[in-house]
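Much of the work behind modern protein science is quiet bookkeeping, done one molecule at a time. The protein below has been through that process, and both of its lines are reproduced in full.
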Amino acid sequence: MSLPPDIADLLAPKYGLDPSICTGPGLVAATRLRMEINGLDDEFSYYDQLRQSGEELDAFVEELLIPESWFFRDRVPFDFLKSWVTESWLPTAKPEVDVLRVLSLPCAAGQEPYSIAITLLEAGLRPEQFSILSGDLSPRFVEQAREGTYRSIAFRGEDYVEREKYFEDIGEGLIRVRSFVRNLVSFKSMNLVCAEDYADDGPFQLIFCRNVLIYFNDDARRMAFEGLERSLTDDGVLFAGHADAIFRINDDFGRYGPPGAFCYSRRAKSETEDVPDALPKPQSKPLPAIEKRRRFFQTSKVAELPKSKDPVRLPSADSLTEAKRLADSGQLEDAERICRERIDTGPASADACFLLGEILLARKEVADADAQFRRTVYLDKSHRDALFRLALLAEQRGDSREAGNWRRRAANRAQPSTSMTNSPST
């Protein structure tokens, strides 16, 4: 199933959605739900309503982009945030003057900004020492985030903090963020592609914008990133996601922090520059206005950031071979770790993404595997093995049309891509 071209064209200017979002099982689910809500029994009638109603178009996009999130998702970024605050920001901050300003966008249902607030408290900051602004394109998500009420699915794995300290059980299977944490985050409706929605509240030393840019088309991705860049302080830190290759959008930004943190900070352009394993310490001088900083970066060379004494070593060419060996022998966790380190610290690698997808598939993490195979094809359009995997997953979802498209694309490639001979065994 795919949207009619004219409706897909309506989504691009306002929402910046990549065309791939306008097809597949997510589209089927969103369309059927909105048809049911509107009391319609055929797609053509619903598409007519989408063409005529901007309000329904907004509601449709909300449903299409429903995010899945949970508290302290991916853990490593929050570990690194805590260490950066305690080791870099607090020692240089002036208690009566400096306020750590954080932007979290999009907020979804609020799990991420609340996770940030709790991490900053755990790092020893007092409430008056930081401010967090968060928001989403969807007013419904913003209201849900303000409410701060969740079911148990929002908590996964071992507790990162003492849960009762920051959350309260309100009955009927619901858990609510305690009021003193909710009061630490300000929410409002914001469009990531429109920097005007948040620029006046900046500049920010920390920006969390994870795993969302990959869903945008090229123009929207550039617009979104330019807005974030202008709103980030000169020494600021951007937390992106594993799917957001920031260095491919702007090579003035380099990776910082441990593998899995997916942090970026500005750096001077240099083909031979080492990649530090720690973030630059914040400057103590007053922060310039956004427009002043923009002009500075247009006319001046950015000073090179201090290098770490122990720079991260890029994985060797044999690292993927070792990861394949571990995967084939059933050591999936070790194999996954090597793949993620290779993706985080090395150049963009289709083979690394594909192998990670194979590992995730073996662990029955189908949605994440599908995302890695799509990223593989994004990096290497001729990667036949990834194309065939995507076709298989589409068939398993019952989407024969999408499966056929993937198979036709694979059939047009002359040679198979380099990959594991066998999928890793469980």
About this structure: Strands lie at 100-104, 130-136, 149-150, 167-171, 174-177, 185-189, 204-208, 232-239, 253-256, 263-266. The first helix runs from residue 5 to 15.
